[in-house]
């Protein structure tokens, strides 16, 4: 990999793992506010259902909420998907899990003199809340959120937005993400190098025949960039 000046990261399922966060949301906030509308269901099963309904990186939020309407044992007609979505956007950002691996990775990259940024799709308030819940804002030199920038990954403009704040050319930066299309395809078509974080043995898909670089843990970034 060519020498670089900056590392840009996706947020959800890259800097932090969504599945533990979804389980926290399910057993804390969703159970608290919706259990009276449900037939008896163990919290562990509720958590499993919400993880499955979320669908990982290939399912939209609206599709996930429709899945919750279908999959959970509601006593009567379930809440409409907009109500479920509002609840998700209000409470899920509070559930992001800090990990030593995440902080050690960011701290080490900063100590090496690299600029760091997050480029993420989502609502501005919710994504900012996740960043603050994780406690990583002090490490970041730029944050580009689609809700604020007005364009989503994989469009090049959102990547260029972060690069312009960093004052780094695309060829001098690398992007790390879990989504083959939004992250890896988006970054490479912008002119950046890219590293695919493969979580849970999820398959490769999208326009690129294979990932430029592949890792299985966030901290592996340090080895590739050493």
TrEMBL record:
Entry's Gene Ontology BP terms: small molecule metabolic process
Key word Protein biosynthesis present: no
Pfam (any one): Hydrolase
Cofactor(s) demanded: Mg(2+)
A Gene Ontology molecular function term of the record: hydrolase activity
InterPro entries noted in UniProt: HAD-like_hydrolase (IPR051400), HAD-like_sf (IPR036412), HAD-SF_hydro_IA (IPR006439), HAD-SF_hydro_IIIA (IPR006549), HAD_sf (IPR023214)
NCBIfam families attached to this UniProt entry: HAD-SF-IA-v1, HAD-SF-IA-v3, HAD-SF-IIIA
Protein name: Putative hydrolase of the HAD superfamily
């Amino acid at each position: 990999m060519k020498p670089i000046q900056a590392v840009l990261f996706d947020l959800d399922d890259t800097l932090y793992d969504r599945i533990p966060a979804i389980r926290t949301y399910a057993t804390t906030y969703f159970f608290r506010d919706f259990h009276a509308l449900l037939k008896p269901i163990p919290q562990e099963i509720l958590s499993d259902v919400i993880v499955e309904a979320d669908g990982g990186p290939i399912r939209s939020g609206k599709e996930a909420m429709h899945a919750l309407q279908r999959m959970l044992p509601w006593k009567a007609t379930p809440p409409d998907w907009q109500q479920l979505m509002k609840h998700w956007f209000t409470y899920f950002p509070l559930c992001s899990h800090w990990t030593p691996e995440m902080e050690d990775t960011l701290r080490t990259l900063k100590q090496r003199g690299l600029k760091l940024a997050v480029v993420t799709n989502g609502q501005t308030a919710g994504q900012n809340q996740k960043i603050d819940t994780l406690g990583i804002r002090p490490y970041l030199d730029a944050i580009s959120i689609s809700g604020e920038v007005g364009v989503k990954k994989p469009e090049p403009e959102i990547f260029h937005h972060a690069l312009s704040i960093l004052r780094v050319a695309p060829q001098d930066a690398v992007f790390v993400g879990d989504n083959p299309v939004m992250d890896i395809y988006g970054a490479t078509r912008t002119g950046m190098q890219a590293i695919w974080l493969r979580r849970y043995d999820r398959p490769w898909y999208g326009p690129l025949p294979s990932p430029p670089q592949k890792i299985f843990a966030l901290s592996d970034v340090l080895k590739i960039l050493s």
